[in-house]
C-alpha cells in the first residue's frame, strides 16, 4: 500500500514527522501512535472512513481496498447475420467468433478470462488522533 506520490506531493507534512516516522513512511510501514498525516503519507487516501465508539471513546477507522485477480473461464453465445457475411460477436480477450460463415444462427465460444475482486487490504483505527490498532493483509 506504499504510496510515494503522497510523500512527494506533501513534502511539508513529511518534514513535520519525526526521523523515525519518516523512515517508516518511506517503507510503507505504520505503527501504533502515528498520526493520520503519517498514515496518509505511508498508505495514501483511504477508500472508506467510518466513525464510531469503543469503550466510550470516539474512534475513526480508515479502510483500504485492494483487488486480486481471479482466473475464470467465460462462455459466450452470439448470433451471426446473413449468408456469406461476417459474424458479429467475439469471446473474451481473443475476439474469437468474427469471420465469414454460411447461414445464420447462434454460435458459442469461450476461453480463459481474468476478473478483479475487491478485498480489504488494510484497516487503521485512530483514537484521539493516534493509531491505536491496524491490520493489513500479508504482501
Main features:
139 residues, alpha+beta, Beta-lactamase Inhibitory Protein, Chain:B, domain 1, four-stranded antiparallel sheet, elongated
CATH architecture of the largest domain: 2-Layer Sandwich
Strands, count: 4
Put simply, the count of helices is: 4
Strand order of the largest sheet: 1-2-3-4
**Helical coverage, percent range:** 10-25%
- Biggest pleated-sheet summary: 4 strands, antiparallel
Structural class: alpha+beta
- CATH class annotation of the largest domain: Alpha Beta
Q: What is the mean pLDDT?
A: 83
CATH topology of the largest domain: Beta-lactamase Inhibitory Protein, Chain:B, domain 1
The N- to C-terminal Cα distance equals: 9 Å
Low-confidence stretches: 83-87, 90-96
Instruction: Indicate the proportion of strand residues.
Output: 35-45%
Rg value: 25 Å
Number of domains: 2
| Structural shape | elongated
- In N-to-C order, the SSE pattern is HHHHEEEE
Structure in words:
By secondary structure, the chain is an alpha+beta fold. It has two domains: 4-67 and 119-136, Beta-lactamase Inhibitory Protein, Chain:B, domain 1 (2-Layer Sandwich); 69-115, no CATH class. 20% of the residues lie in helices and 42% in strands. The chain is built from four helices and four strands; from the N terminus they run ααααββββ. It has helices at 4-9, 11-16, 19-26, 36-43; strands at residues 48-54, 57-79, 106-127, 130-136. Strands 1-2-3-4 form a four-stranded antiparallel β-sheet, covered by helices on one side. β3 (106-127) and β4 (130-136) form a beta hairpin. α3 packs parallel to α4. The longest helix is centred in the first third of the chain and has 8 residues, at 19-26. Residues 83-87 and 90-96 have low confidence and may be disordered.
Amino acid at each position: 500500500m506504499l504510496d510515494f506520490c503522497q510523500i512527494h506531493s506533501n513534502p511539508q507534512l513529511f518534514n513535520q514527522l519525526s526521523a523515525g516516522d519518516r523512515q517508516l513512511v518511506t517503507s510503507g510501514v505504520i505503527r501504533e501512535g502515528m498520526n493520520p498525516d503519517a498514515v496518509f503519507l505511508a498508505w495514501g487516501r483511504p477508500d472508506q472512513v467510518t466513525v464510531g465508539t469503543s469503550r466510550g471513546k470516539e474512534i475513526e477507522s480508515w479502510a483500504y481496498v485492494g483487488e486480486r485477480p481471479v482466473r475464470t473461464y467465460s462462455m459466450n453465445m452470439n448470433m451471426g447475420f446473413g449468408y456469406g457475411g461476417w459474424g458479429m460477436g467475439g469471446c473474451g480477450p481473443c475476439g474469437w467468433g468474427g469471420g465469414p460463415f454460411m447461414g445464420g444462427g447462434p454460435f458459442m465460444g469461450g476461453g480463459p478470462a481474468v476478473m478483479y475482486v475487491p478485498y480489504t487490504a488494510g484497516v487503521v483505527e485512530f483514537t484521539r488522533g493516534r493509531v491505536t490498532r491496524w491490520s493489513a493483509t500479508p504482501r
